[in-house]
Design a protein that fits this description.
Distance between the termini: 30 Å
Strand order of the largest sheet: 1-2-3
Bound molecules: tryptophanyl-5'AMP
């Protein structure tokens, strides 16, 4: 019996500067996967319309994310790199998923609640339907694995729910056309058209926290620039932000358990581990019992050593927008061909006339 072919998909929104959380939670992971999986990495420009409709520089921001992908080490020959809006099949499948998903599912999304705030009636319909487009991004390629940071976990559960409901609701049509694929779901083997995608939320930095408050996620929207390290920060800025990072007065603990009630210490140790390509345990083994006055300079040095080359490469690549556009165009063509293969089958399964 056939199984779904293993395929990785992930995306980043072109809104504002990328920060260390995006790098450690996503981009660095994307790079690690390119040697073992076939991968598709997308700049999700349509998603960026959900919170802010009118952008002055959407094209620039889109290029900047693509440049960050390339500067982090993604190979555009090995992987497909493109921007979402070039492949209209994403939006087409999202519409179908809007009819599969239930409003109640969307209303429960914590990110929707956070972003919509108190005035939910005034949020865009796109913001509510955001996870449906995200499910379409993944499933239009029938991708099996999605590397993301911790904050995207709930959206990926919803993508599984959408896939499962589509598979159930159309099970007879899927069987009639012979488009079902066998897959393992828990202990059972079931047949369906869309895979139940696995999130890959791995490594010591799946949730990088603000440098000013270890209980808040590092985020593009935090008003304090000191809360985050941006991919475009220069060496002095990186070192200064780490020096100013909030900490408690105790030295680092002698074991990992000692980090539990210490969010700022935990965060900095996690960042160190992810940058060094090691584990929190290893970092504690080396730095347990040491003061922050010793640990912070070591972390700053490591962060500069790892981030400066990416920063320089991003500037080099961004100086040639023609090159970046070419990568996105070619990636879009390759992605479009794959997406159309899926959509042809989806249209047949649903019964949409398409000939
Ligand atoms: P976005 O653009 O907000 O973030 C891009 C990636 O960065 C991760 N991330 C973090 N990881 C660790 N610590 C942090 N503080 C941190 N902040 C952000 C995010 O988890 C994400 O992996 N909805 C997605 C984009 C998207 C997508 C998709 C992702 C659209 N379609 C399909 C995967 C598959 C988003 O807004 O990510």
């Amino acid at each position: 019996m056939s199984e779904f072919k293993q395929l990785v998909f992930s995306g980043v929104q072109p809104t504002g500067n990328l920060h260390l959380g995006n790098y450690l939670g996503a981009l660095q992971r994307f790079v690690a996967l390119q040697d073992t999986y076939e991968c598709i990495y997308c700049v999700v420009d349509l998603h960026s319309l959900t919170a802010t409709l009118v952008h002055d520089d959407l094209a620039e921001q889109t290029r900047a994310i693509a440049a960050a992908y390339l500067a982090s080490g993604l190979d555009p020959k090995k992987n497909i790199i493109f921007n979402q809006s070039r492949v209209p099949q994403h939006a087409e499948l999202a519409w179908i998923f809007n009819c599969v998903a239930r409003i109640g599912w969307m209303n429960r999304m914590t990110q929707f609640k956070d972003k919509a705030g108190k005035d939910r009636e005034n949020a865009s319909l796109g913001l509510l339907a955001y996870p449906s487009l995200m499910a379409a991004d993944i499933l239009v390629y029938r991708a099996t694995h999605v590397p993301v940071g911790e904050d995207q976990k709930q959206h990926l559960e919803l993508a599984r729910n959408i896939a499962q409901k589509f598979n159930n609701d159309f099970s007879e049509h899927i069987a009639t056309h012979g488009y079902g694929v066998e897959m393992e779901v828990g202990e059972e083997r079931v047949n369906g058209f869309f895979p139940l995608t696995e999130p890959l939320i791995e490594g010591p930095a799946t949730r990088v926290m603000s440098l000013r408050d270890g209980t808040k996620k590092m985020s593009k929207s935090d008003p304090s620039d000191l809360s985050r390290i941006n991919l475009m920060d220069d060496a002095d800025t990186i070192a200064r932000k780490i020096k100013k990072a909030k900490t408690d007065p105790e030295p680092l603990p002698g074991d990992v358990g000692g980090l539990e009630e210490r969010p700022e210490a935990h965060n900095l140790v996690g960042i160190y581990a992810a940058l060094a390509g090691t584990t929190v345990q290893e970092v504690i083994r080396d730095y347990g019992g040491r003061q922050f006055s010793e640990f912070k300079p070591a972390l700053a040095e490591l962060a500069v050593e790892k981030m400066a080359p990416i920063n320089a490469e991003m500037r080099r690549i961004s100086a040639d927008p023609g090159y970046v556009d070419g990568v996105l165009r070619e990636g879009g063509e390759r992605a479009g061909a794959k997406a159309e293969e899926t959509m042809k089958m989806v249209r047949e399964i649903i019964g949409l006339l398409d000939n």
